Amino acid sequence: EIVLTQSPGTLSLSPGERATLSCRASQSVSSNYLVWYQEKPGQAPRLLIYDASSRATGIPDRFSGSGSGTDFTLTISRLEPEDFAVYYCHQYGSSPYTFGQGTKLEIK
Amino acid sequence: EVQLVESGGGLVKPGGSLRLSCAVSGFTFTNAYMSWVRQAPGTGLEWVGRIKSKADGGTTDYAAPVEGRFTISRDDSKNTLYLQMNSLKSEDTALYYCITRSLTGFWYWGQGTLVTVSS
């Protein structure tokens, strides 16, 4: 099983700052089949990035994904107030599929 | 428009059973790999299991905590995915989502159905 470790667990930043979220896999993620989700209370997760670096339809270009193999990054270039939420990475390159434990992005 | 609508959640006693359904529309269900994901209250997302398309064998894979207790199946004639949950435990209490990946890489989620296991 591929274990995804997200860091940091909590990230405290101010609007306008840059956020860098990490997702490290215990083994290489096949075909870079990794996605990033944003989750807010009471809502289903929202897809941000798929296949490690492709931005989903309707997602602002301040969100970007990068990485390959075992190290992946979600970057939010300039934080907007609505970006403060919990973020998860998820790999579907090999079964069992797995999620990271999440990074909470909070307002400083 | 792609829609995934889960149903069948509710309150069940420990050791009991429940069957969840996920009705799908707006894409070719027959070709889709379908997964179930859950989220216990106040915790993160957990992948439950997946079923491949029948063309790819229709095989299933499960996360370790549910292996042997949960069964995923599909009825392509009804565009419906199922999750049969047996020997339920309190730790199975969660919001259960069905999800799928499109050919273009986009992932679709339902709104979830709540399962509560409690005496």
Topology:
The complex is a heterodimer of chains A (108) and B (119).
Chain A: E1 4-7, E2 10-13, E3 19-25, E4 34-39, E5 46-50, E6 54-55, E7 63-68, E8 71-76, E9 86-91, E10 98-99, E11 103-107
Parallel strand pairs in A: 2-11
Antiparallel strand pairs in A: 1-3, 3-8, 4-5, 4-9, 5-6, 7-8, 9-10, 9-11
Chain B: E1 3-7, E2 10-12, E3 18-25, E4 34-39, E5 45-51, E6 60-62, E7 70-75, E8 80-85, E9 94-101, E10 107-109, E11 113-117
Parallel strand pairs in B: 2-11
Antiparallel strand pairs in B: 1-3, 3-8, 4-5, 4-9, 5-6, 7-8, 9-10, 9-11
Cα-atom Rg of chain A, whole angstroms? 13 Å
How far apart are the termini of chain A?
Answer: 35 Å
Biggest sheet layout of chain A: 7 strands, mixed
Low-confidence stretches of chain A: none
Note the main sheet of chain B. Answer: 7 strands, mixed
Mean pLDDT of chain A: 96
Helix proportion range of chain A:
under 10%
Describe this structure in words.
The complex is a heterodimer of chains A (108) and B (119). With 108 residues, chain A is an all-beta fold. Helices cover 0% and strands 49% of the residues of chain A. Chain A has strands at 4-7, 10-13, 19-25, 34-39, 46-50, 54-55, 63-68, 71-76, 86-91, 98-99, 103-107. In chain A, strands 2, 4, 5, 6, 9, 10 and 11 form a seven-stranded mixed beta sheet that branches. In chain A, strands 1-3-8-7 form a four-stranded antiparallel beta sheet, with no helix packed on it. Chain A is globular. Helix content of chain B is 0%, strand content 50%. In chain B, strand 7 and strand 8 (80-85) form a beta hairpin. In chain B, strands 2, 4, 5, 6, 9, 10 and 11 form a seven-stranded mixed beta sheet that branches. A four-stranded antiparallel beta sheet of chain B has the order 1-3-8-7, with no helix packed on it. Chain B has 119 residues and is mostly beta strands. Classes of the chains: A mainly beta (108), B mainly beta (119).
